[in-house]
User: What shape does this take?
Amino acid sequence: MNSLPPLGLEHLSTAVLALDQDFRVRYANPAAENLFEFSSKTVLGTPVNQIFLETGGLIAATEAAFVSGTSYTEHELTLSTAANTYQVSLTVSRVFDNGPHLLLEFHQIDKHLKIAREERMQIQQQYNRELLRNLAHEIKNPLGGIRGAAQLLEHELPKPGLREYTQVIIKEADRLQSLMDRLLAPSRATKLTPVNMHEVLERVRSLILAEHPEGLSLRRDYDTSLPELMADHEQLIQIVLNIVRNAVQAMQGRGNVIFRTRIARHVTLAKKSHRMALELKIIDNGPGIPDALREQIFYPLVTSKEDGTGLGLTIAQTYVAHHGGSIDCESQPGHTCFTVLLPYNHLDTR
Assistant: This one.
């Protein structure tokens, strides 16, 4: 079967499929590969109703356009694949190029909402960074004074048995000092080196399984063709570790976690277009994030755990921002997915 010429469609930011008169895929542009998470090589020659699980509106639109010879639009259409469900608008056009063909152009209905959410998260991340640094600096100085005074008091106490109280003060001061160091940690300079993301994931996997040797499954779903990423090795470890530890704590150490890596093409991150980005999904089958916290999980000091600090995801978001990437979360009971996108051509040395 002759393949349909690209016709410049590879440069479009909207997803486009080209079908022949039998509704088989003749071409898929990079934006379609990115949106629907498939490779064009795997879908060429495949009937469109075998790619999507729900195709009632899609087939009706393609048939109407093919019969009438005019463009046909579905403003709200739900498409499902084995991996995801998509809310899109669809425009179908009939063209003639070595025979009749159909061009299907898909627009995500929620794309503008995603852009607005990313902008809010960028503003929030900057606010978080300043808040954390100011808070840490304000606390560190008096904290040192409290610890020093407790040490002096300990030497002056007449009864050795009373020293257990000064030890409580000293130990709690040390714990708060460690917390302040963690608050300030994201502000250190990002050190970029070539990093194999799978090596990072394997490191985190070993750490988590050592902490929870029973009842926990960490599965791998890797795209082994991923190129190395120019990134800060330690920050990437901390990003993944913080997300996974949150998941494992929510599951009380028992459940399933999946590491999934893919290439995302033609993505926009922080208002910049990137030809290629690394997409990491961390998926767990835990109880999900409470509705009341879902919009606030990246805020500092927000946590549902009694002994939690509420800093793990804030620090992860900060490190992702250092790399010019994005982090997002979708959650419902039994399925929580954190998606991290890191561009391959970003060099941020803040």
Q: What stands out?
A: The two ends are 51 Å apart (CA to CA). The chain has a mean pLDDT of 80. The domain at 9-109 is CATH 3.30.450.20 (Beta-Lactamase). Residues 111-156 form the longest helix (46 residues).
